[in-house]
Amino acid sequence: MPLLLLGIPAVFLVFFIPSIIARHRSDFSTILLINVVAGWSIIGWVAALYLALRKNSTTLSSTASAGPSTFSVADEIAKLRDLREQGVLTPAEFERQKNNLIS
């Protein structure tokens, strides 16, 4: 009987290892759902563990987007000025867009 009392919490601990690992991830709820719904099968448990251990996709995308495409207010105003000079924007539209960028 004492062995059974120790075994049940150990089984639950092993079952929820993917969710425990993923508790600080942004996609924790997805991993927990997969762990609870499909974790009883080996494939579902391994899938939840894989999702918990993979690199966070938001980290990868933020690193990739931090490259040369930085937002510069001066560059945007220069683009607006070029559009105004080409006649695409009226002077009033230019001023409105410029004020939106500055504020």
TrEMBL record:
Keywords: Membrane, Transmembrane, Transmembrane helix. The keyword Flavoprotein does not apply. It comes from the Bacteria. Residues 75-100 form the SHOCT domain. The keyword Disulfide bond does not apply. The chain crosses the membrane at residues 32-53. This is Superinfection immunity protein.
